[in-house]
Structures are given as C-alpha cells and as structure tokens.
Specification:
The chain is an alpha+beta fold. It has five helices and nine strands. It folds into two domains: about 130 residues, Nucleoside Triphosphate Pyrophosphohydrolase, CATH 3.90.79; about 70 residues, Winged helix-like DNA-binding domain superfamily/Winged helix DNA-binding domain (Arc Repressor Mutant, subunit A, Orthogonal Bundle), CATH 1.10.10. The chain is about 25% helix and about 25% strand. The radius of gyration is 20 Å and the shape is elongated. Keywords: Hydrolase.
C-alpha cells in the first residue's frame, strides 16, 4: 500500500453479535450483496454518516442489515491496520452485543443477501479482517464472563441451572464440574428461584431461576467480586 500524508476520511462500524441456543454459542454473520465484500460473509457493518453519533450508526447499521432492533450495543475496540481494507485506509469501530436469539427474527436488509447465526467456532471465512475482529471479541467475552455476570443477557429471563452451566461451557469451550459450578453461584446469592419448573419437556422438569440484578448492584457497592 502506498502511504501519503492525506487525511483519513474512511470510518466504519462493524458489529459482533453473540447469541446462545441449545447449549451452543452463535455469532451473527451477513452476506453482502454489494460493494467490495459482495458475495462474502462479513460482520454486520457499514460506513458512518456525518450527521450521526457512533452509537446511532451502530444501531442503524445493525437494524438495516439484520432487522435486529433495540439491541444494547457496547463499544469494544477500534481496528486500524494499514492493510485491513484493499483500496484505501479504513478505520473501523467495533461494537458488540449479547442477545437472546429467541427474542428476535432475522431479516436480510437491502444491502445484504443473507443473514445467519453460525456456531462461533464454525464461522466461515469472512471478508477483510472480520475473522480477526470476531476472534478478538470472542476472547474478550471469554475473559469478561468470568468476572462479570454478562451471560444472563444470552439466557431467557427464567432459566435452569443446567442452561446456565451450558452457557458457560459453550463460551469457555470446556466442561465444568456440576457441583463446583453450582456451589459458586449459590455462594454469590445472585440467583432467585421462580418457584416454577420447566414446561413441556420430555425429561424431569427442572426448577427455574432468574438473575437478581438489584442484589448484584448492591454487592458491587460493597466491593463484591464476581468470579467463576
């Protein structure tokens, strides 16, 4: 790439969206129908408009390409390697989100031909450096979920202890000891029994729980450390 003293004027947004279902962690990928990435799988992303904030751009891009709306997006990291884009210098700001797959119905927007959930460890080759961006964000999630109760965003409001353990196993990529895992959560007092059991299941119905966010916030004020 030929370097110059020209001002960088190419700024984009890319979104990494994680979802969880049936004991597997997924990433949301789109296939672009136009531009340099036409026909290739990519993270949902596009250019930022001059009249919008970064957060507004991230929400607009995600909604227009996948139909995911009202999703809480958090800014993750900026990627700006000199050769990450083929014909000019482009810096991209990455956002990420954790969503409950069952709450959303996907729909490909006008700029993409397909939108699909892929197992996070079976994602196809993607355009530009999107594979590297996804890997970086996944590593960030693997670290953060052990120190913050982020995983509850991926679960339904009411969940079983087995679902909770399967979530951690899917993200961390390892089997966890059942007794030890449940003991850790029991000691933290962050789970509240719903006094209900699963419905319409072929196996023995398990008890349902919910995450007590109010209790977590109180504990944090007292110096509580979340550790899994």
């Amino acid at each position: 790439m030929k370097l110059s003293n020209e001002i960088i004027d190419a700024l984009s947004i890319d979104c990494v969206i994680f979802g969880f279902k049936n004991a597997e962690l997924y990433a949301l990928i789109v296939k672009h129908g136009e531009g340099l990435a036409k026909g290739q799988w990519s993270l949902p992303g596009s250019w930022i408009k001059y009249n919008e904030s970064l957060d507004e751009a991230a929400s607009r891009i995600l909604s227009s390409q996948t139909a995911l709306d009202n999703v809480f997006l958090e800014q993750f990291k900026t990627f700006g390697d000199l050769d990450r884009f083929p014909d000019k210098r482009v810096i991209t700001i990455t956002y990420y989100a954790l969503v409950n797959i069952d709450r959303f119905e996907l729909e490909a927007g006008p700029a993409v031909t397909e939108v699909r959930w892929f197992n996070v460890r079976e994602v196809p080759s993607m355009s530009f450096d999107h594979g590297h961006i996804l890997d970086s964000c996944f590593a960030h999630l693997q670290h953060k979920i052990q120190h913050e109760p982020l995983g509850f965003n991926l679960l339904p409001e009411k969940f079983t202890l087995l679902q909770l353990q399967e979530l951690y196993e899917a993200i961390l990529g390892q089997k966890l000891d059942k007794s030890n895992f449940r003991r850790k959560f029991s000691k933290m007092n962050l789970l509240v029994s719903c006094n209900e059991r699963e419905q319409d299941v072929s196996h023995r119905a398990a008890m349902l729980y919910r995450f007590d966010e109010a209790m977590y916030n109180k504990l944090i004020e007292k110096g509580f450390t979340f550790e899994i």
